[in-house]
UniProtKB/TrEMBL annotation:
Family membership: Belongs to the HisA/HisF family.
SUPFAM superfamilies: Ribulose-phoshate binding barrel
Keywords: Amino-acid biosynthesis, Cytoplasm, Histidine biosynthesis, Lyase
Pfam families per record: His_biosynth
Primary role: IGPS catalyzes the conversion of PRFAR and glutamine to IGP, AICAR and glutamate. The HisF subunit catalyzes the cyclization activity that produces IGP and AICAR from PRFAR using the ammonia provided by the HisH subunit.
InterPro entries xrefs: Aldolase_TIM (IPR013785), His_biosynth (IPR006062), HisF (IPR004651), IGPS_HisA/HisF (IPR050064), RibuloseP-bd_barrel (IPR011060)
Top-level taxon: Bacteria
Cell compartments where the protein resides: Cytoplasm
Entry protein name: Imidazole glycerol phosphate synthase subunit HisF
Primary location recorded for the protein, binned into one broad class: cytoplasm
GO molecular function, one term: lyase activity
Pathway named in the protein's UniProt entry: Amino-acid biosynthesis; L-histidine biosynthesis; L-histidine from 5-phospho-alpha-D-ribose 1-diphosphate: step 5/9
Length: 251
């Protein structure tokens, strides 16, 4: 049985870790390299670093941050934000990232997924999808959730899989930062329709939310930020709780 993964997410702006609610009202959560080292030691399975201002400001993800993180952690980590070319990915993987996450650039140029998969392999390519439920329909949003599109979440996710991406990171904008639980109905639909792993993001507040997203949402991994950054939930305690609920995790 494949173990379920717990993934702290570090949103980076101007070199610092930040966290907001529904993608706004950001507050400082600490130094990303220090936080990464703590998470690696405390049982996190992977880490995700998202440079949330990179796409908006039209600049490349901070490659030097990747170098510093790679020196400090011994678990896989994914980097995203402002990645729009084979060259961008080459630099990040060369500097020590295990995977890259693309979002807005994939929607604007879907062929980029094919190009990256052909060059680096599916296992390196994560496509992040930020979506918001509006009048019953899940619509994809770009540029850190600021730009709405007419693209349907489930149709886009299927295309992403068909183009070779190895994993999907789905963030529900409706749930992000609310601590009311993950978008399990949408996650279950994604998991049923696709054959690649789905990472649940947006809404973690209590330990039982993680249990729920693995059982009801059929997610392969659960990503969270503030509950870990501000020590509301300790990863070791969370994994022991998941194990008590018969969910396979790496202790």
């Amino acid at each position: 049985m494949l173990t379920k993964r717990i993934i702290p997410c570090l949103d980076i702006k101007n070199g610092r870790t930040v966290k907001g609610v529904n993608f706004v009202d950001l507050r400082d959560a600490g130094d990303p390299v220090e936080l990464a080292a703590i998470y690696a030691q405390s049982g996190a399975d992977e880490l995700v670093f998202l440079d949330i201002s990179a796409t908006e400001e039209r600049r490349r993800t901070l490659a030097d941050l990747v170098l510093r993180v790679a020196e400090k952690v011994n678990i896989p980590f994914t980097v995203g934000g402002g990645i729009s070319s084979v060259e961008d990915v080459d630099i990040l993987l060369h500097n020590g990232a295990d995977k890259v996450s693309i979002n807005s650039s994939a929607v604007k140029n879907p062929q980029l997924i094919n190009e990256l998969v052909a060059k680096f392999g599916s296992q390196c390519i994560v496509v992040a999808i930020d979506a918001k439920q509006i009048d019953g329909e899940w619509l994809v949003h770009l540029v850190g959730g600021k730009v709405p599109t007419e693209l349907n979440l489930f149709e886009w996710a299927k295309e992403v899989e068909e183009r070779g991406a190895g994993e999907i990171l789905f963030t529900s904008m409706n749930h992000d930062g609310t601590k009311d639980g993950f978008a399990n109905e949408a996650l279950a639909k994604l998991s049923t329709q696709l054959n690649i792993p789905i990472i649940a993001s947006g809404g973690a507040g209590k330990m039982h939310h993680f249990t729920d997203t693995f059982v009801e949402g059929k997610a392969d991994a659960a990503l969270a930020a503030s509950v870990f950054h501000f020590k509301e939930i300790e990863i070791k305690d969370l994994k022991e709780e998941l194990k008590r609920n018969n969910i396979a995790v790496r202790l």
